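User: Can you predict the 3D structure for this chain?
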Amino acid sequence: MPIALWALTISAFAIGTTEFVIMGLLPEVATNLGVSLSSAGLLVTGYALGVFVGAPLVTATTGRLPRKTLLIALMVVFVIGNLACAIAPGYATLMIGRVVASFAHGAFFGVGSVVATSLVPKEKQASAIALMFTGLTVANVLGVPFGTWLGQIYGWRATFWAVTVIGVIALAATAVLVPRSQGGEEADFGKEVRVLMRPQVMLGLLMTVLGFGGVFAAFTYIAPILTDISGFPASAVSPILLLFGLGLVIGNLAGGKLADRKLMATLLGSLVLLAVVLVLFGLTNENKIAAIIGVGLMGMAAFATVPPLQMRVLEKATGAPNLASSANIAAFNLGNAAGAWLGGVTIDHGPGLHAVPYVAALLPLAGIAVALVSWKMDARPAALTRTERTTPI
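Assistant: Here is the predicted structure, written as structure tokens:
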């Protein structure tokens, strides 16, 4: 793989760390700033909504910039946002810093996916996307645990200082290693929106929302599941979640390799795998060993969906790769928010915590139905062509 891909991977690591590390620092932030734990939790929500809004908005308004220039600009915004978090005197400033950083998130992964595919032959494009997203998965394995430890020992601001430094390194790597692109300078916003509205693109975005909605419906409440149902002490949750992170890495790379060979078969198979793993996790999580295995498999199944979902949207969005790719990143985050909400409703107003994995599985099952419809639509032009060739004139 080209060395430029590693610059994108470093950036993805920095972005992934700042997105998820706040979850492990909520008690410290709440105590230090004198706010409730639920208010501190809104720092997670604010970031996700910032990604959802910022991904298509930033991409659409910067479409005429060369892609390398845009990636550099986005990393500058990321560094500024995290620096604002590190020096934030209060809750409002910290929230603003989080939202600023989040605006770089979606657009970077969207445009970065396009750049990654441009660096390799067509038969390796899904693997290139997978390599970039490996930075996000490694962030969950290494960046988040280390950042949480750093914030607990030296204060939560130390974590954001560390992320800022990583962001500067990623910025320099992008500036030096990523080649200047010939594409992206003449983007037409109206045209890109029309492309985004194509039925197949919209179906691809819907598959993303449903797939990752299922992941986060379960994963958001993985800690109480492990403690209240599986019977683990709270101190065991973090080590177990390392298996989830390792599963992310394996699933991401495997999904990329398989998607390079057969895109739709991999996409459909990964959604089926995710639904099956969620159901099995619900059936077996009262057993500690089975629960540990289930967490690792959940991570693997979750990120096996990422490369094929991203490639499917790019494949169907010819003429608008930047906006469509960024919109798909927004769709991932919409799925995150919707899944977390659905899991909460299941606990507070439904059958309860035990049922969360089963309810979560309903979302990828719906995604499978959408994928089958989309796949059938793929066959229509070919069938029509064959009919036209055999019909007498």
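Confidence is low (pLDDT under 50) at residues 382-393. The longest helix spans residues 356-390.
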